[in-house]
Amino acid sequence: MSLFLASVGFGLITSAVLAIAAVGFTLQFAVTDVLNLAFAAVMTAGAFIAYWINQLGVSVWIGMAVAVVACSVLSVLLNLFVYAPFQRRGSSPITMVIVSLGVALVIEFGVQAIVGGVNVSYAMSQGSTFRFGGLILTTVQLVIMAISVVVMAAAHVLLRYTRLGKAMRATAANRTLARNCGIRASRVITTTWALTGALCGLAGTVFAIDVSSFGPTSDDIFLILILAAVFLGGPGHAYGAMLGALVIGLATEISAAYIQPDYKYVIAFVALLAMLAVRPNGLLGSRALA
How many Cα atoms sit within 13 Å of 19 on the Cβ side? Predict the structure, then answer.
């Protein structure tokens, strides 16, 4: 039982990090219509930006704030100078996927050229250890979970109760109709890139904090988990991404406790494939930012 509870604790932390990334990814995909495989590469860039700030003797939490802003700007620039020009030419979805893969390689190897092939760690303390029954969590892990809960609540408020959120939902559902209704779709899309880029920087930093040691390619496998969470919950479905992150996070860590840890990502995809065989549109269905 203690092993199970310990694995649940790890699963909750993984789910918290994954939820931030998955919500950002699915918002980006639904509104911009770009399956951005460079998402994890931007996360890596954000993690290293926070690291460089941290190496100046500044708190990693301040470094995280800088990474959030930097990745937001980077995402907007990627759309402005890379994705949008291809979309204006009428490029097919598969072309956009290939373009995003190329962007991912450029960013990843660019970071690697700067930092080298070594892994690094933040200079920070994990804080006190707390026990909740059989669960054992550190202060930093609790902070990460709290950040994730705040992000999920903010996403809910944004989509349900703000004009921007309603415009994002309308643009995701039908961009042409949204324009005809007076919504400035181009402005909504740019804002979406900024918001999801910020979530990308946040996810990259908390991911790096969680794994302790990270390198230029550390987030590659995490992209697989993001895709699994998004498609498990239902592509384009923000709440589905949250639910998918919880299921995938728990499944990977609990399976790692009882099976070979190297197979935990395989277990995640077995669960995904099994569910898709029953519900092809995901747990909550494929709806535009529902």
Answer: 27
